[in-house]
Specification:
With about 150 residues, this protein is α/β, with parallel strands linked by helices. Helix content is about 45%, strand content about 20%. It has 8 helices and 5 strands; from the N terminus they run αββαααβαβαβαα. A 5-stranded mixed β-sheet has the order 2-1-3-4-5. A hairpin with a 2-residue loop joins β1 and β2. The longest helix is centred in the N-terminal third of the chain and has 15 residues. It is globular. The N and C termini lie far apart (about 35 Å).
């Protein structure tokens, strides 16, 4: 079964790669509709904070807390500590993760705070990141740091 929202997040990740950035994408879904979409734009914007999830939040515009409490965040990669903090800050109750094989983020923290996590282990997400990390270890390590 094709998940149209994860497909949209993957489309965002591919946009980031095409722009010369890191292929991580995210969408925020409310009531069955995408209200925000984004991709990692650290390289493109010279930014310290434009991860895919942060870009999707930025592009969702100013929403009341009641909206975020009913959203699902889709991301192609397990959320880092910064993005996890934003998920918790806005009380987003569910996160669907494309993969956590190439990078394991703060899933335990999200779960400990009651956020429902679903991990798809999507082969396309895994391949996108594995190829990028192999081809561009300098960019990957600049953002995430050597683990």
């Amino acid at each position: 079964m094709v998940d149209i929202f994860m497909e949209a997040a993957i489309e965002e990740a591919r946009k980031g790669l095409e722009e010369g950035g890191i292929p991580i994408g995210s969408v925020i879904v409310h009531d069955g509709k995408i209200i925000g979409r984004g991709h990692n734009r650290r390289v493109q914007k010279g930014s310290a904070v434009f991860h895919g999830e942060m870009d999707a939040l930025e592009n969702s515009g100013r929403q009341p807390a009641s909206v975020y409490r009913e959203c699902v965040l889709y991301t192609t990669l397990s959320p880092c500590p910064m993005c996890t903090g934003a998920i918790l800050l806005y009380n987003i109750p569910k996160v669907i993760i494309g993969e956590n094989k190439t990078f394991l983020g703060e899933e335990d923290l999200l779960k400990s705070r009651g956020v429902k996590i679903e991990i798809l282990e999507n082969p396309e997400c895994i391949d996108l990141m594995a190829e990028f990390i192999f081809s561009h270890p300098d960019l990957w390590n600049e953002d995430i740091g050597e683990l």
